[in-house]
Amino acid sequence: MSVQIEDSEVDIVIAALHPNLTPFLEAWRPFFSRFHIIVVKDPELDSDLQIAPGFDLKIYTKSDIEAVAKSSSINFSGHSCRYFGYLVSRKKYVISIDQDSLPAKDPSGLVTDAVAQHITNLATPATPFFFNTLYDPFRSGADFVRGYPFSMRCGVPCVLSCGLWLNVADYDALTQSVKPNERNTRYVDAVMTVPVGAMMPASGINIAFDRLALGPALLPGVHFTGEGKRRWETLEDIWSGLCAKVVSDHLGFGVKTGLPYVHREGDGTKPHGSLNKESEKVKLLDDALPFFQSVKISRNATSAVDCVAELSGMVREKLGAVSPVFASAANAMDEWVNLWKSVGAQAE
Amino acid sequence: MATSGSVPTTPLLKDELDIVIPTIRNLDFLEMWRPFFQPYHLIIVQDGDPTRTIHVPEGFDYELYNRNDINRILGPKASCISFKDSACRCFGYMVSKKKYIYTIDDDCFVAKDPSGKQINALEQHIKNLLCPSTPFFFNTLYDPYREGADFVRGYPFSLREGAKTAISHGLWMNIPDYDAPTQMVKPLERNTRYVDAVMTIPKGTLFPMCGMNLAFDRELIGPAMYFGLMGDGQPIGRYDDMWAGWCMKVICDHLGLGVKTGLPYIWHSKASNPFVNLKKEYKGIFWQEEIIPFFQASTLSKEHDTVQKCYNELAKQVKENLGKLDPYFVKLADAMVTWIEAWDELNPTASASTATAATNGPAKK
């Protein structure tokens, strides 16, 4: 059930939060150059972008966002600008990497191709219904282990590939304050499927997905007032990932985690200034947890956009009163569904 | 939040852990494990011909049980212990008086990590068991309690204390644990990939538990670790550990206990004969398709608040739901009940154990 993914089916979406994209693009050139790239400029960024030449690249700016989504209350600033790129992409697959992340090296010193690994992850089946103890059975040198039911060995399409980060790991502000010098040096040579029903934090730093199958579920729902550009200040990807996992589980698709790694520089700033805002964020996920643990999407919802439409109503109903953040998320999800239906649907 | 600071040394737990080894031939493999195993007490369960003498290398502290011993100790209840199958190892779990068990096959040797250093598998298992698990939310950096790792952004803070770890499931370099059809299709495949991770298998997810390199907290989950009826006189083999794993996971999920998999690796040296394996596994391959949905749908209620109560309830469900698949499951369900009776007889002080009551107290005598 593996599929063949052509280069022409892939968009690489980059959120430009800082003006100079050249070092990033140059580092990724060997791996990006074959693909079409969408750069979405953070609408709050004033300076012009510096972009290395020689890429097949399209830039979207504040005026493009306003032209398409001006009446929407969705906040596309900061890290959330990438969702605009997901919306306007016309490809089947999207790969998105944060601007502070570069190609990583494996333990032998070889620079790894994160793009190729994400494509492999999406092209080979996922196995969400039973855990394989040798991880991805479709990797060369591995297989299903004794005791794995044969009827489940075809797997299901993988629609989301969540990669990881060496060097500066994706920790929240509190953890980073306690461990400011910790660096992730452990290269775990595995890809695995996150089982159906299991929830996970799907960091947006290094991610790829099947836009046709899951696109609408990667959504800009949560944006905090005064949220800055630092990853620890956001939860947009975490909220999006929880929704995407619920939708993927419902539609019978799979989500993988593990390889590829990127080498994340971070921006060197310390989170101490953000800690006063942390207490509200800290509570939010705990408040949302019972909802995501028990949410059931109806059988009528057979596409990602239908699922998100249903989810937004349930978020409003069950979480709207818990925090205004959730009430806004429900509104944003409704608007996202409308945008997706009018602008986002087609692929080449 | 996971602990930071200097790396703590792992306690040996030499008075709190038994190593259970099933064998039919000899225990020469213990020589390689001597630096790691010698401090511990071994429980050797001798399968097959009880008149054969099993040679144990000098210097190990052990007790050995053959079939005559099993019959003598359990009387009629000995019928629940398999004969001519390594499933008999679970007798060792029952007679142990320790808090922790490590079980290993006699064709498993010390593996090396990518730096060439010998892996102390037992030490890693102890680390795994002493640290919490995280079954309620998947941490993408795997075990957050490992040195150099932590919970990632987005992991709910209310879940960061984790759950008690009941099982540590290790893996194998060299000969992977494949079923017979896969072995036949890929006779030369060897596992050469060292995956440097320990992770918790999420609540609600089943997995194939291999008994080759396995450790568990006997006080938390021991009664669920029955390896079923296999081997002589039985229609199936090579599903002993699988059966225990499925029962165990349903119970752990119900009681809020964690199951870890990943490190440590051992070096699995022998590939068993795939044709022999196919004969043993044949029925299991078909039955599995019914067994898995059964376990996935199995529910336990609040009144099932001890491992024994959970297990007896599961036995009832096995009889009701799988009995129609084959009469073997009726026999197996009865054997499951017999196992619990035998366990409680041999472990009277633990007969009312609950998951919450178990502590890291001194070892029982």
UniProtKB/TrEMBL annotation, chain A:
It is found in: Golgi apparatus. It comes from the Eukaryota. Belongs to the RGP family. Its main location: Golgi. The lineage of its organism: Eukaryota, Viridiplantae, Streptophyta, Embryophyta, Tracheophyta. GO terms for biological process: cell wall organization; UDP-L-arabinose metabolic process. PANTHER family: UDP-ARABINOPYRANOSE MUTASE 5-RELATED, UDP-ARABINOSE MUTASE. This is Putative UDP-arabinopyranose mutase 2. Signal peptide: none annotated. GO terms for molecular function: UDP-arabinopyranose mutase activity. Keywords: Cell wall biogenesis/degradation, Golgi apparatus. It comes from Carex littledalei.
From TrEMBL, chain B:
It is found in: Golgi apparatus. GO terms for biological process: cell wall organization; plant-type cell wall organization or biogenesis; UDP-L-arabinose metabolic process. The keyword Isomerase applies. Its main location: Golgi. Keywords: Cell wall biogenesis/degradation, Glycoprotein, Golgi apparatus, Isomerase. Its EC number is 5.4.99.30. Glycans are attached at residue 153. The record marks 153, 160 as: Required for activity. It catalyses: UDP-beta-L-arabinofuranose = UDP-beta-L-arabinopyranose. GO terms for molecular function: UDP-arabinopyranose mutase activity. One of its GO terms (cellular component) is plant-type cell wall. Probable UDP-L-arabinose mutase involved in the biosynthesis of cell wall non-cellulosic polysaccharides. Belongs to the RGP family. PANTHER family: UDP-ARABINOPYRANOSE MUTASE 1, UDP-ARABINOSE MUTASE. This is UDP-arabinopyranose mutase. It comes from Carex littledalei.
